[in-house]
Design a protein that fits this description.
With 261 residues, the chain is mainly alpha-helical. It is 81% helix and 0% strand. It has 15 helices and no strands. The model has no long low-confidence stretch (mean pLDDT 93).
Length: 261
């Protein structure tokens, strides 16, 4: 089994799951120094890999490598606090890890575990899983935007913008990334940046009502009421069946017109 896993590593050398299974196989064969190396590599590649840290700690202790054992056990205990806080949370984490072990090439599984870590403020582990999800994704702009959007919902706007900017480096016209980056920039009071994102958005999707509305909002917020009025008048001309959006456009347009007088 270990020989087959070694062959797999030639193709998937950056996959923590393969290193983890290799470590198990080598340990079963009594090749403990090599098993320790494999488990260490698994934990380097996947910093939230609870069971890999545990197996590494036990094996290092058995082979009298105290420093490795202490470091691995300390990390294991840190991660174990997540599962100890609630039985169901522990089961959820186990299910997410099992999904990765079963299909390690699926980026969604890594994203899900990353989001799980982010919700519990384990941001280093979250970043590690998000980066893996991006690396495995066929459309990296889509995954980066998905990560950014979810981090914004977790009240992490600065980190969210970081991912959205990377999404736009991959695809400068990707509308969902432009919208989310503009919206977050506006919430942070960075109105010039928000205006830039929304201008790019309406250039990309001139028929999108929301883009014109939020461009108008960013312009009003920055004191550019005349330009805001033009954007909002354009928004009014577009077809929308959303009565709430129509009302919002009308209110903001009235404000822009009053402020520009």
């Amino acid at each position: 089994a270990s020989e087959e896993l070694h062959r797999a590593l030639r193709l998937l050398g950056d996959d923590a799951t393969v290193h983890y299974f290799l470590g198990q196989s080598l340990a079963a064969e009594g090749r403990e120094p090599e098993a320790i190396d494999a488990f260490q590599r698994a934990t380097e590649l996947d910093t939230g890999f609870l069971d890999a840290y545990y197996r590494l700690a036990l094996l290092a202790r058995k082979t009298v490598k105290p420093q490795i054992a202490r470091t691995a056990m300390a990390k294991f205990r840190q991660l174990k606090t997540i599962t100890d806080e609630d039985v169901e949370i522990g089961k959820q984490m186990q299910r997410m890890r099992a999904a990765i072990l079963n299909v390690p090439e699926d980026p969604t599984h890594h994203f899900n575990l990353g989001l799980f870590f982010a919700k519990r403020a384990y941001f280093a582990e979250a970043e590690n899983k998000f980066n893996r999800a991006v690396a495995l994704s066929a459309d990296k702009a889509v995954m980066l935007t998905r990560i950014g959007k979810n981090l914004a919902m977790l009240e992490q706007p600065e980190v969210a913008l970081h991912y959205l900017e990377h999404a736009l480096e991959r695809d400068s016209t990707y509308a969902p990334a432009l919208f989310d980056a503009g919206h977050i920039s506006g919430r942070l009071g960075r109105h010039a940046e928000a205006i830039n994102y929304f201008r790019r958005l309406v250039d990309r999707k001139p028929g999108g009502v929301e883009g014109w509305y939020f461009l108008g909002l960013a312009l009003v917020s920055s004191g550019n009421n005349t330009e805001a009025e033009q954007a909002l008048l354009h928004a009014q001309k577009l077809d929308t069946s959303d009565a709430r959006m129509t009302a919002k456009i009308s209110r903001l347009l009235k404000l822009a017109q009053n402020e520009s007088q």
